[in-house]
Amino acid sequence: MKIFARNFFIITTPFVLMVLINEVIRTKINETPYSAHGITAINSAEYLKEKCSWACHNNTAYCKSHHVKYLKSNYKLTDVFYFGAISALASTGNYGAANIIFLVLLFPITILYFFIKSLNIQNKIRKL
């Protein structure tokens, strides 16, 4: 039962924290929220120079010129991975659903799975 409780805590905590942080941030946003397909997002729809907004999602060049401070010299490397990931998600035919399935669910769950697996192996090693 201890292992089940530990694993349940490890799996649920990141998702609960994500929801809590998003809901706290939502109350502090004064700008007009971005809306599309009947869904209202947390981030603003406005182009803001002081912080990223939904406009940065739709216009990467704007974000790179106003918000990136440290990795500008690495664009040749990072752009390959960044735009490659976006192209791969878009190639599914439904970018939004693919983004949620792969980046919000499958990728984090895979990381958590291997984290739990490593803890289980550490327990077996301790028992030896």
Q: Which key phrases capture this entry?
A:
128 residues, mainly alpha
Taking the alpha carbons of the first and last residues, their distance comes to 21 Å
Helix coverage percent of residues? Answer: 55-70%
Q: Which percent range describes the beta-strand content?
A: 5-15%
Tell me how many strands there are.
2
Mean pLDDT: 90
The H/E string reads HEEHHHH
Contiguous helical run count: 5
CA-based shape: extended
Low-confidence stretches: none
Q: In angstroms, what is the radius of gyration?
A: 19 Å
**Major beta sheet, strand line-up:** 1-2
Secondary-structure content class: mainly alpha
Q: What topology does this entry show?
A:
Layout: H1 2-26, E1 33-36, E2 39-44, H2 54-58, H3 60-66, H4 75-90, H5 95-127
Antiparallel strand pairs: 1-2
Q: What does the model show?
A:
This protein is mostly helical. It has helices at 2-26, 54-58, 60-66, 75-90, 95-127, and strands spanning 33-36, 39-44. The protein has a two-stranded antiparallel ribbon with strand order 1-2. The chain is extended, with a radius of gyration of 19 Å.
